[in-house]
Specification:
15 strands; Aspartate Aminotransferase, domain 1; 2 domains; 340 residues; single chain; 7-stranded mixed sheet; Aspartate Aminotransferase, domain 2
Length: 340
C-alpha cells in the first residue's frame, strides 16, 4: 500500500568525511558568546516542553529583523523543514513543480518523494556567472502548481530574480498556484522579495539562520508569507516543534544581531579574494552572491582536496562547490588547488 514514488526513489544520502568542512556552506565561526550562553542555560529546562512565550517572542523578533508583521512569519526547525512543509501542504501527487537545474538538491528529492512532475529550467554558463532563460521560466509557470527558486541559487551562486519586483509579479500571476523563493543566502546577496507577500498571497519566502547567523547546528529557519497562508501552513504544527535551546539561541541572536554584518563582510571579503586567486591559477571559477564558489574542472578536485584533509562538494559532472571557510581554510584550499 506504500505509494510507488516512495518505494522507487532514493532519499537524501550523506556520508560524513573527515576533514575541514568546506562542503556544507556552513558559517566557519561559532556564534557569539551571548548566544551560546543562552542555549546552554536553556538546557536546564529540557525536562519541560518548549515555552509558548519563547516561540511567540521568536516570531516577534523575526518580524523586527525583517521589518514585517510577525503574523507573516512562521518558524521551523530548519529551512529544510520549511521547504518540506510547503511540498507536503501546497501540492499533491501528480501536480507539476518548476525549478532550476542545478539547484539545492532537496528540491528535486522532495518533488520525487511527493510524486510530482518536474518542470526543469536548465541554467547555463554566461561569462563569470550562470544564467537562466527567464522567458522559458515564465512560459512554463502556468503548467506548474508550484515554482521553487533558490535565489541566489545553490550551487551556482548566481541571482535568479535578484529582487526584481516586476519579474516576480509576472511569475506570481502566471503560476497555477504558488511561487516559493528560497532566500537562504539573503544576508549575502542583500536583495529580497519579502515585502511583497501581502500583495501576492501565493508568494512564500524561505529563510534560514544557519548561514550568516552561524546557527546551522541548532536548526532554525522560517517562512515569510501572507498572513492567511501562514495560518493555513501552520495548522499541522505546534509551538512545541522547535527545541528550547534552539528557541533560546534564536532569540538571543536576534536581540543582538550586530555580529551578523561582520560575518557577512568577512565572508564576502574572503570570497572575492578566493575568486581572484583561483582565476589567477587558471581555474574556471564563477562569481557568487552567496557564501561559496563554484568551480568547473575535468579533474577530480574532490578527491585531491580530500587527500589533503579538506572536504568540498561535487555537485554535478565536473562541477565542484567550495564553501568560504575561515581565512586559514581559504588560503589552504587555494594552496592545495594550486598544486594542480
Amino acid at each position: 500500500m506504500v505509494k510507488p514514488w516512495l518505494l522507487n526513489y532514493e532519499s537524501y544520502r550523506y556520508v560524513e568525511e573527515n576533514g575541514v568542512r568546506l562542503h556544507l556552506n556552513e558559517c566557519p565561526w561559532p556564534p557569539p558568546s551571548h548566544v551560546i550562553v543562552e542555549a546552554i542555560q536553556a538546557l536546564h529546562k529540557v525536562n519541560l516542553y518548549p515555552d509558548a512565550n519563547m516561540f511567540r517572542k521568536l516570531r516577534e523578533l523575526l518580524g523586527e529583523y525583517n521589518d514585517i508583521d510577525p503574523e507573516n512569519i512562521y518558524p521551523f526547525a530548519g529551512a529544510d523543514n520549511a521547504l518540506r512543509a510547503l511540498f507536503y501542504n501546497l501540492v499533491e501527487p501528480g501536480d507539476a513543480v518548476e525549478f532550476v537545474k542545478p539547484t539545492f538538491n532537496m528540491i528535486p528529492i522532495l518533488a520525487s518523494l511527493r510524486g510530482l512532475h518536474s518542470i526543469v529550467v536548465t541554467s547555463y554558463e554566461c561569462g563569470e556567472w550562470w544564467c537562466i532563460d527567464v522567458e522559458r521560466l515564465i512560459d512554463y509557470a502556468d503548467k506548474a502548481v508550484m515554482v521553487v527558486l533558490v535565489d541566489p541559487n545553490n550551487p551556482t551562486g548566481s541571482p535568479i530574480l535578484k529582487g526584481d519586483r516586476e519579474l516576480l509579479s509576472i511569475l506570481a500571476k502566471k503560476v497555477n498556484g504558488f511561487i516559493v523563493v528560497d532566500e537562504t543566502y539573503y544576508e549575502f546577496s542583500g536583495y529580497t522579495l519579502a515585502d511583497m507577500v501581502e500583495e501576492y498571497p501565493n508568494l512564500v519566502i524561505v529563510r534560514s539562520l544557519s548561514k550568516a547567523f552561524c546557527l546551522a547546528g541548532l536548526r532554525l529557519g522560517y517562512i515569510i508569507a501572507h498572513r492567511e497562508l501562514v495560518n493555513i501552513l501552520s495548522k499541522p504544527y505546534t509551538v512545541f516543534d522547535i527545541p528550547t535551546p534552539t528557541l533560546a539561541a534564536g532569540i538571543a541572536a536576534l536581540e543582538n544581531h550586530t555580529y551578523v554584518s561582520g560575518v557577512v563582510a568577512k565572508v564576502i571579503e574572503l570570497r572575492e579574494w578566493m575568486y581572484s586567486e583561483l582565476r589567477k591559477l587558471g581555474f574556471s571559477v564563477y562569481r557568487s552572491l552567496a557564501n561559496f564558489l563554484l568551480i568547473k574542472d575535468r579533474r577530480n578536485l574532490k578527491n585531491h582536496m580530500l587527500k589533503h584533509g579538506i572536504v568540498i562538494k561535487s555537485v554535478d559532472e565536473n562541477l565542484y562547490r567550495i564553501t568560504i571557510g575561515s581565512e586559514d581554510a581559504c588560503r589552504e584550499a587555494v594552496r592545495i588547488l594550486g598544486e594542480l
